[in-house]
Amino acid sequence: MLFGAYVFAWVINRKQAGWKAGFGGRWDAWDSLFFIWIASAYLLASFAGLHKNEWHAIGDLWRYVCVAWLLKRSGYGDREWRAIYVAVAVSTLVATLEALAALTFPHKYAGIELHSVGHVNHSATYIVISIGAVLSGLVAYWPGLSMRARGAGVLTLFVLGVAIVVAGSRAATLVSLIIIVLVGAVWSRRSKAVLLAMALVLAVFTTSIQTFDKDMHRKNELAAASPNPMLNERYPLWNQAIAAWRAHPWFGVGLDNFEAIDAGTVKRWLAERGGNYDPAAYAGSSHAHSLYLTTLAERGSVGMAVILAVLIGWELRCCAPGRGTRTRRCTGCSGGVPLRR
Known about the structure:
With 341 residues, the protein is mostly helical. The chain has helices at 2-17, 29-46, 58-72, 78-102, 120-141, 147-167, 170-187, 192-212, 214-225, 234-247, 263-272, 291-318; strands at 327-329, 338-340.
């Protein structure tokens, strides 16, 4: 429903800008990539190795690809992009405060779970993405923000940081630290004060993790005692993903079909390759706890090629210098934040 509301608002906004110029200009390489991304879902579903959710899952792909495509062709200016950053900050802050408040009542789950996201791992991932967006937007627009807006942004980052500590997710913590380092490094060319602030945030965040994150310490102890300290419980999931990819290397088992892989299916795949099945080495789940291995298992090499093209293209476009200007601009969404040279 909200996706439909955004599409409707986008169409009205673009109509007001003028039908010819309002739809983002001429077709370019990114338009082709978005089209291929959506079209590939139908190709993968047609040749899926297993049959359960592959056609229904196309709806999710449609939604998130179309949101990116519409943003790319939005023609939004600085004011609109700032509003998007604010929307991300406020919405995530509200959900996180609600989740933190829920921890004060008896509950069965570990860590923190956002009501609209779910499992603690997924919630931690969402919070990390929001930290990157809020931190980038806050640093980019800092000179033009009021003291109240600056304070609100810093407070939002503090709450999200607390949520990461409570989540006890090692991956989310590591990525949060990497985001802080990268943003500080990129923006240090613009202001040394930013680098100093990032160093301070990094020190406080790391100290908080070491001091208060008992759940992460527990996970580290369990991992150290397991046969696979680095991967822990992910080891059998990754094995299952690799087995699925080997059985269906080109198109995978189908979108959202990782959960359809059972022990009998894995035994059959291994037998066909002359291998033996070890119950301790394979395990099922809704996904492989890895974007790349889940993609390989569900979408095969064809789907992986599309995902890699999107990720590499996004990186190259976001780092491309503006033509004929004295600024660098993140152009991945046909807008973004000006980076002063």
